[in-house]
Amino acid sequence: MVESGKIPVAISECLLGERVRFDGGHKRSSYITDTLSDYFEYRAYCPEVAIGLGIPRKPIRLLATDGMTRVVQADDASIDVTDPLRDYARSLTSDIENVCGYIFMQNSPSCGAFGMKRYGSNGYPLDKNGRGAFADEIMQRFPLLPIEEAGRLNDAGLRDNFISRVFAYHDWKVSVAQDPSPGALIEFYSRYKYQVMAHHVPSYKAIGPLLADLKTPPIETVCEQFLTIFMTALSHLATRKGNTNTLLHLRGYLRGKLDAQENQELSGLIDNYREGLVPLVVPLTLLKHHLLKIDDDYLQRQTFWNPHPERLGLRNVIPT
């Protein structure tokens, strides 16, 4: 069961500074340990150590062979650790069910989640279409779980997207999953409506019909369908175009409530953001300030304003 408070997030153990790498080193990330640790409670795993590989140990790599990808020792392909890595991932099913995200170590033949280098049987690099065996098993078993690599968190857009999804997934588990009901589902989505719009309009349009009839299907079925659409929507990066569209929709609530100078100022800031001249936080702050005049609880509770803590400053960067 997931509780409120710090959010449980699984992580590759080496990223916390533990010397579990094949060369006896670590890959500590100061952003992960010094910043995100204020909000995340880490549950660390090193699959290579867990399956009995020593420290230090000979390096392993991905081998593309017979239409499959295997994890083998770099200097001896007969030593294959693919199945033990996958078995270990399966053994963690109950643990991973209770986390709200996973940060993997990039370029790891066990934990690499994206664009891993694969080698051919001739020993030469073949492509970058691989994924670490442990990470792959986790991602197949938990397709909606927010996943990211530590290295990719250096990208402002990917960082914003991953952290937003972790907070949303945690909110879902606390607010709906523990006691599903039509009321809880509607209340949850009423807060995320404009965040979904900013990320993926087709998903935004698909959720309305799904929630139109909550009496006939079992609520558990509707929740499962909703969560798939919802988390898939948030997995799309929010673009400048999507954010601008959402800002304009929210601005519609101010029709007739601003004077000419206020209208001009707000329009100018939204246009400046659309053109990439200012970060999202600039028009967002002014728009929210004006919407306070309406005193509408529905608008004030929109997660679009703050999908993650303001202290992280993620919206001070212009999205690409």
How would you sum up this structure, described in words?
The protein is of the alpha/beta class. The protein has 2 domains: 7-154, no CATH class; 181-314, no CATH class. Helix content is 45%, strand content 14%. It has helices at residues 30-35, 47-50, 82-91, 93-96, 133-141, 156-177, 182-199, 201-212, 219-235, 240-251, 260-274, 281-291, 297-300, and strands at 7-12, 40-45, 60-65, 68-73, 76-80, 102-104, 116-119, 125-130, 147-149. A 5-stranded mixed β-sheet has the order 5-4-3-7-8, with no helix packed on it. It has a 4-stranded parallel β-sheet with strand order 2-1-6-9, covered by helices on one side. Strand 7 (116-119) and strand 8 (125-130) form a beta hairpin. Helix 7 crosses helix 10 (240-251) and helix 10 (240-251) packs antiparallel against helix 11 (260-274). It is elongated and about 75 Å long.
